[in-house]
Amino acid sequence: MSRGESATPLARVRGLGSAHHGGHHWLEERFTSVSLVLLSFWLLFSLVMLPALDRGTVNEWLGSAWGAVPMALFVITAFKHGLDGLKVVVDDYVHEDGTRVGIHFFLTMAAIAGAAVSLFALAKIAFGAN
To answer: For the whole model, what pTM was predicted?
Structure first.
C-alpha cells in the first residue's frame, strides 16, 4: 500500500514536514512592507514640503533625482508587494494547478505592465518629455 492509499489523515501527512521554501517569501513580504512604510513617509513628507501641489511644482520635484529615484523605488516595491500578496491569496484559495498557474501568469503580466507604464510616465516627467 502506497502512502496515502487507505491511510488515516494523520498517516498521510506524517513525515512530510515543511517544503522549506516559504521562509524566503515571508521575509521578502516583510522587507517590501517595511520599504513601503518608509517610502510612504518619504512621499507624504515630500508632498507636504512642496510649496504648491500644481503640475509645474510636482513636475519640477519629480524631475530631480531626490524625487524621481525614490518614486521609482516606491512604484517597483508597491507592484512587487501587491503581486506577492495576490499570489498568496491565489495559492490559498485556488487548488487546481492549471488554474493557479494561469492566474499567477496573468497577475505577473498585469503587475509588470502596471509597473512599466508607471515607470514610463515617471521617466517622461523626470526627463522633461511632457
So the answer is: 0.80
